[in-house]
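From the pipeline queue, job 12 of 40. The input is one protein chain; the requested action is below.

Action: predict structure.
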Amino acid sequence: MTVLIPQPLTGSRAFRTTLGCFPTGVAIVTTLSEDGAPVGLTISSFNSVSLDPPLVLWSLARSSECLDDFQARRGFAINILSADQTELCNRFASAHDDRFQGVSWTASTYGLPVLNDIAALLICETHAVHDGGDHEIYLGKVISHAHSKNAPMVYANGAITRPAEKP
């Protein structure tokens, strides 16, 4: 039997390791810049909030180069990645001059960038933005959605992994 003994918070690395024990999905959130160019970044801080009204949330680091774009727009798309989209995940997670260069995507009926071959999609209006310490927490009202049969990407213990197969 393993008994965990809680320790005082002494640094962000140990805290991050503990949080890594909770698997999450991986998505790329997209919007448009002021001049209409597509922008986006990889997130694992996505969660459902409510079914009625349909609300989801995600968080954005205040240090992100995309912060002004998401603050200026009143909508965003959550592109939930498929298990085989590691290269796309890494591209949108790193500093890159044009993350969309050479990436296959289309504009949604709302004009938001939607990536191809993803597991699921949620188009959202920004419902609220909240203070989250070194992040801003975006609450989105889902206005349209879709899903595929693609297995979703999973992130746990600091690494991308595949979800367990259905029995």
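Job complete. The mean pLDDT is 91.
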